[in-house]
Amino acid sequence: MSVKEEELTNNSPPCASNSLSNYLWDDHPDENKWADCVHCGMCLESCPTYLETGQEQHSPRGRVHLIKSVAEGKLEVNEQFMDPVFQCLDCRACTTACPADVDVGGLIEEARGQVRQAMPLTGLKGVVSSFFLKGLFPHPTRLQAAGGLLKFYQKSGLQKAVRSTGALRIMPDHLADMEAIMPEIKQSVHKKYKNVDVIPAKGSSKAQVAMLKGCIMDVMFSDINESTINVLTYNGNDVTLPKNQTCCGALHIHAGDRETGKKLAKQNIEAFQDADKVVVNAAGCGCALKEYPELFRNDPEWHEKAEVFSEKIEDISKYLYDTGYIKPQSSINKTITYHDACHLAHGQGVRHEPRQLINDIPGVNYIEQPNADTCCGSAGIYNITNPEMASAVLERKMENVPEDVEMISMGNPGCMLQMAMGVQKYGRGGKVVHTVQLLDWAYQEDEKKGLGNKAASVKE
Amino acid sequence: MDKHLLDVAPLTDSSNRFGNLSSNLLYPESEDEVVDIVTKANESGKKLSIVSGGTKLGYGGLKSNYDLTLSLKKFSGIVEHTVGDMTVTVKPGTTILELQTFLSRYNQMVSLDPSCPSTATIGGTIAANESGPKRLKYGSARDHVIGMRVVYADGKIIRTGGKVVKNVAGYDMNKLFIGSMGTLGVITEITLKLRPIPKHTSLVMLTVREEALDELTAFTKLIQDSLLEPVSLEILTPTMSKKLINRDEYCLLIALEDVKKAVQFQEVWIDQHKPNEAVMTVHPNPNYFWQSFNELIPNSLTDLGESTHGVLKVGTRNLDVFPLLQECARIHHEGNLKIEASGGAGHGLSTIIISGNNANVVNAIIHLQSFASDLKGYAIVKHLPIELRKELNVWGESDGLFKLFKSIKQKQDPNNTLNEQRFIGGI
Amino acid sequence: MLLSKKKKQKLDPDILALTEIVGAKSILHYKEDLLSYDCDGFTIHKAMPKAVIFPKNTEEVAAAVKYCADRSIPFLARGAGTGLSGGAIPLNNEVIISLVKMKHLLEVDYENRQAVVQPGFVNLKLTNSISHKGYYYAPDPSSQYVCTIGGNVAENAGGAHCLKYGVTTNHILGLEVVLPDGEIIEISNNGVLDMPGYDLLGILTGSEGTLGIVTKIIVRILKNPEAKKTVLAYFDNVEDGSHAVSDIISAGIIPAALEMMDQTAIEGVEKGAFPVGHPDDIEALLLIEVDGIAEGIEEQIEQILTVCRNRNVREVKVARDEEERGRWWANRKTGFGAMGAISPDYLVQDGVIPRSKLPEVLERIRSISDEYGLRIANIFHAGDGNLHPLILFDSRIEGETGKALKAGTACLKACADAGGSITGEHGVGIEKKEEMRFIFSDEEIDAQTAIRDVFNPNNLLNQGKLFPTPSRCMDIKKVIKETAITK
Lengths: 460, 427, 487
Prior knowledge:
Chain A: It holds the Pfam family Fer4_8. Chain A: Its EC number is 1.1.99.14. Chain A: It catalyses: (R)-lactate + A = pyruvate + AH2; glycolate + A = glyoxylate + AH2. Chain A: Its cofactor is [4Fe-4S] cluster. The structure holds 3 protein chains of 3 kinds. Chain A has helices at residues 5-8, 31-35, 48-53, 60-71, 79-87, 93-97, 104-118, 123-136, 140-155, 158-165, 173-180, 189-192, 216-220, 222-234, 250-254, 258-271, 283-290, 292-295, 300-312, 316-323, 342-348, 352-359, 382-385, 387-400, 413-425, 435-448; strands at residues 198-199, 207-211, 237-240, 278-280, 313-315, 325-326, 335-338, 365-367, 407-410, 431-434, 458-459. By secondary structure, chain A is α/β, with parallel strands linked by helices. In chain A, the strands form 3 sheets. In chain A, strands 1-3-2-4-5 form a 5-stranded mixed sheet. In chain A, strands 8-7-9-10 form a 4-stranded parallel sheet, sandwiched between helices. In chain A, strands 6-11 form a two-stranded antiparallel sheet. In chain A, strand 9, helix 25 (413-425) and strand 10 (431-434) form a beta-alpha-beta unit. In chain A, helix 4 (60-71) packs across helix 7, helix 17 (283-290) packs parallel to helix 21 (342-348) and helix 24 (387-400) packs across helix 25 (413-425). The termini of chain A are far apart. By secondary structure, chain B is of the alpha+beta class. Chain B folds into 3 domains: 1-197, Uridine Diphospho-n-acetylenolpyruvylglucosamine Reductase, domain 3 (2-Layer Sandwich), CATH 3.30.465.10; 200-295, 2-Layer Sandwich (Alpha-Beta Plaits), CATH 3.30.70; 308-389, Alpha-Beta Plaits. Helices cover 30% and strands 23% of the residues of chain B. An 8-stranded antiparallel sheet of chain B has the order 14-11-13-12-16-17-15-18. A 5-stranded antiparallel sheet of chain B has the order 4-5-9-7-8. In chain B, strand 7 and strand 8 form a beta hairpin. Chain B starts with 24 loop residues before the first strand and ends in a 15-residue tail after the last helix. Chain C is α+β, with helices and mostly antiparallel strands. Helices cover 35% and strands 20% of the residues of chain C. Chain C is globular, with a radius of gyration of 23 Å. At the A-C interface, helix 4 and helix 5 of A face helix 3 and helix 13 of C.
């Protein structure tokens, strides 16, 4: 049953073992990435799946070990290998914990690429996955249409009917859970600003920024896009929405579909060519855009373009913090806690800025939650593909949300859906909001009261 | 072997009142001589008792007829003291007082405060794992011994640990010998970790009447939960307190050792927070006080037999010291014997001195052993004449671990050459 | 989904029996799943286990142990697997008993200052769980974010702050242990000090998992010190720095931590993730922390500054605030990892020397460095003489790994020759088995294995660790060392 190490390998150094490698496709995991791992284990406690299972193969260093083992010819790309590689939430908490800066996320994505080519998805998972990833997200019009359907579903009263009759029970549990928290669909900024080139700054203009609309964001959370535009213009930014922009590709890359990921990346790089700064309000998207160079590590031409592009990307909270923003004067008298989206805290190192934004709003009673930077289990479409693990991770997360908060603020739409599900499922109080919405609401109050941006001071 | 027979004076009845001796007393002065004695005894099936300062003859042991007694009393002195490393290597017969006096010249000390420092030796202190009221901050022998040389029953010299203060190479063999009552080998050299002598010391005494003991208990908890860093939190029963400071009340001894400002700050804090009922005194000469405290407990050198004294070492959870001491006071009040006791609320170890006639002393010991056992602790008899020890189980009941103890003894001393029947379960 | 395919494979009866004991969800036995358990934090040697089980309670541990013992199946316990000496590597195709599912804090008794934890409870979580009341658990190995207290007991773990507060063994009050025959014993089950009998707590702590499997631990907890202050001092030469270390302690100060880095180490940390801006031309820096009653700290700091000045310090400063203190510590604590910035590979050693021998041992290490043509950085728990030479090498260069291993052994020899020890906190494990001979005679090693035989007479539990096995093992180790690739 078990096999001695010596039987598996000739003791030849991994770096010289390409002939042994069981990675059969291009773009295979990069040996320089695992070469940095000294197997110290400092990542273990940061990893939600390790915390849940206690098993090494579901830990960052365990996964790196397996990925390396395939290259050394000790393992094949098969289902047993796939399981740990796809159980990963891609939350990047290990990247923060790692003293040697091992790019576990990058390795996982590359390994997933190999798995997907070795074993294309079949069955329901395949259908769901290709429906979302290939059929829907890359196509704004289809998404808008889907959004339209959702909106119809909500407005028609059908939603109420379905919820009350329990017809939802025919859906798998997790899809039913998801349905329960679908946000109300409003008009997307895609539609609203269809014929507008530049949304002008309120008052004098100090800069021009491009904004990523995002795919899910613009359909399901169009009000957040609205808020983002408001906050940007309120602070003296002209905002553009470059026409050809598309889905960032994060979900595709996470799922191992690196080819579609590259296609989308190229389209975005070109779409934002004229922009100096690209502001993003979805942490997952922002992180993916910043990591385009990794995607093109074997393609010198696009790699260089991707490098230039990634320099332009900035999360909305960091952009505001760095360029200065007007401190609102109207109060939001609420008890608020903040959840660190993985791809903001671990992926982009943005932790302090959103907290500062929240704390600058008068009246806010801010409570830090324990383990604020632990994954909520959303992880792109992970909560659709790995519902059990996602809900275990969510349960752990909800244990940390303080009892008496009225709002939970964060910077990523995926987290918002997942956390809203948590609030609903565990009967907790707390409205789930995007950080930028809080600021927008306070600004709107200021405007109503005539305390507009002219009078306010800009915090540098 | 004859050359070691330096002192063959026949033992009088009274000098063998505590057992653990033989009429053949040997005083080796070197490790070679120890090896020689032990090897020959082991080969010829002789039973050897091992003593040092002679203060613990009343501590365990059911035999008074060993073939030979090996005394380490004359095997004494400092082997090596590295001031910069703060370590000292010392021979086992060195008394605690000699050792501390030597080290004090370098402003260093071994942070151990066992009873009878003027006669008790470092070897005996370690073999019996003795500690004092300052254990709260100081720790015990197991925290300070970093290396030893031990002569096994077959004459092999085994080094345990080393001379460095941090060391995890191999098993922590030092621990095996600490508190083993000389049943596993003869310790011939000890290396200890040292501490600097504190810059300033103070002793704050709080006394309360019996009715207000609860307030003192609450205050003890308060101190433990405060930012103070007491070196002792020793509670004295009224009888003990009467003897030491002439106040017939419960007393809490708070030793403070730090730089002057920090000590003074703590004194002020205690004054501000102490129970209303309590009278606070700062002792003018703490070192003198601790000396008299530590010499107070009867031992086989000082107990001359005018009445029967028994001494118990009781271990409980820290705060169970209070009910234990109250029980001691209660028994004392019954009037047929005298009990003086003190206990450390920071470490849970108490010392109880029982004086009276034989039967009453034995009964009180049995009662307190069961009382301690109800508190999920233990009470062992540290000092008692051998005839009474035979009536009791001085080590308490041996439990599920005894099998392991016996097996360890069997491995190291298969012929039972060393201190036969001295330890728990007759090991 | 995968089970159907797995089920088709014929199962080993031992696997079936162990599955009965722990349940199907708590056992791993397929090659792919076991591969992650072929080493711990020591990666030079790897071996595959027979199975990994995840018992949920003491009874399951005992049942599994009894099953293995009755059938002479070798087994070993594993915590987080962060050990640096290979103590949890299944050299003999062991059944690994992973204790990570036994990860609960069972009880905290603030008044009596003790806490009861299961072995899989993570070190830092204990402090985090009790800090709201102002308490902490003192032993703080640098892996404390992930390492388990069970593993700490096995290795007698230390940490930066053990100078003043002692190592794990000084904080263990009681243990529940499953012996290698499956019997469950309790040692001081109420956490009471000095239980009559031989000191089994003392002998089990640091026995590297060769005497029993710890299933419950009673530890001492301490009250946080009122105040902390941290000093950073730069020295132009190592001798002055090491004299300052001795002087500080001789002045009657026991710092909570007293750390030293040499020039190469400083170069590393300055290029790492947390640079502080240390000058690049100093030979040594000291990081000194004192804690205690706030009223007394200022005086100690003054004394430390004076000592440093008397030893020709170039610059000495006190951390202005918590933020600065944090930066200094982050710079120090990530020291090992930061070596990655100046070298593709490094090998860390763990010698201990008497403090006063520091200058001569550093000189010796310098000549070892010259001899092997490899750079060696030194990070040093100076207060207690625990030296971590970091041997920098590049495994891609043929033969350099072997050279690094030899240089490491030479460093340990230098420590042993100076009257020190071959390990201060990482343990012997597989890594330093042979080096045990540097400090112990055959008779002394036999005296220790005699104790192992008391607990573990058939040597089924964690076989092949800690002690050199005569000749045969020497050869095996030689082979391992020659062929291994080190990180």
